[in-house]
Amino acid sequence: MRDPCLIAMFGLGPFELLLILGIVVLIFGATRLPQIGEGLGKGIRNFRAATREPPEIDVTPKNDNETPDR
C-alpha cells in the first residue's frame, strides 16, 4: 500500500506530477507560465465575484410610446 504522504491531488504521485509539469514547461515555455497562471487567477477571481453578486433584473415597465431599436 502506498504511503498517504506521497499521494498527491487526484491520486497522482509526485513522479506523475513532475512529468506533467515537465510536459507543460516544454509546451508553453518557462517564460509563459507566469502569464498563464496570472490569467487563470484573474479568471477564478472574476468567476467568484460574479457568483457572489445578486442578479440584476430589470423590472421597469416599458412605455408604449417608445419605438423598438432596429
Based on the model shown, name its key terms.
50% helix; mainly alpha; 70 residues
Characterise the protein shown here.
The chain is an all-alpha fold and about 70 residues long. Helix content is about 50%, strand content about 0%. It is built from 2 helices and no strands. It has helices at about 15-30, 35-50. It starts with 13 loop residues before the first helix and ends in an 18-residue tail after the last helix. The model has no long low-confidence stretch (mean pLDDT about 80).
Helix-strand sequence: HH
The overall pLDDT, averaged over residues, is: 79
Principal-axes shape call: elongated
Give the biggest sheet: none
> How many H/I helical runs?
2
- Ends: how far apart? 69 Å
Radius of gyration: 24 Å
